């Protein structure tokens, strides 16, 4: 058992000199224990009796003393930094739109900061296979959160096989060996398309890239909703678009001019959906009168669009919490289960009801 307090009257720590905060040595002298006992007591160690832990915590709280986590991490050779990297963002293959990424990073920063961690935003992991070693092996970060999968599922599996502590925002795959947190994209796609079909739309354009993992799951939901309604899927009504963050409006306008005809759009991101509304308006097509439009993400600008955008809301706050907590457990050597978050349909005026 670590040393117990000497039987003396409890006294406040000696007043630090002007401009100096109390140190662990100050707290130790006031409690009549060693600095190591103060450290253990504030960490909740069972090597220190409950009575001593309470006394040390009272003195520390009275003088607003907090452990310097950066110094503690340095002594323990443990990083207090978590890295954020993207996967497959460059070369026009952005699978997560920028607005959604900003929302997710903001929530992650709040979660990490509340736990005493900093965030380090680094480069794209698909462009640099040595990135895990550069970040974790060099102790620049204790673990990595990967934002998006793109088409790089096999790369992520290979990195998991190497034993690196990381988690991924993305969709589950049957053979994955890494941990994911993400929305139920199949259900979300089915809800959006089912809503359009229930409103009488029968020629629904799918706008996105079915070859990307999350967008592919949304396309699966698109197909499931058609099957449930007894409506055949027309392969010609798939406008493949690799970048989820920026619509090539000329391609949509060319489709309007040459066919095939469509009376609704299901986009795999809100940014694609908002771009579609602008392109349709430029072409003199009324939304939702002629064409109804639905998106995915529920970014801030979706509710302020003209008309406000029907979309599928992802649980960004919950997702950030699960990502961060799963990574901390992974760093500690655990292997938490992957998580699929519920998606929610948000009905607004862009679909007419």
UniProtKB/TrEMBL annotation:
HTH lacI-type domain residues: 22-76
The protein here is known as DNA-binding LacI/PurR family transcriptional regulator
Protein's organism? Rhodothalassium salexigens DSM 2132
**Keywords linked to the UniProt accession:** DNA-binding, Transcription, Transcription regulation
> What are the start and end residues of every segment in region (Disordered)?
1-23
Alphabetized GO MF terms:
DNA-binding transcription factor activity; transcription cis-regulatory region binding
SMART domains the UniProt entry points to: HTH_LACI
Database matches in InterPro entries = HTH_LacI, LacI/GalR-like_sensor, Lambda_DNA-bd_dom_sf, Peripla_BP_I
Name of one Pfam family that matches: LacI
**What lineage does UniProt assign to this protein's organism?**
Bacteria, Pseudomonadati, Pseudomonadota, Alphaproteobacteria, Rhodothalassiales
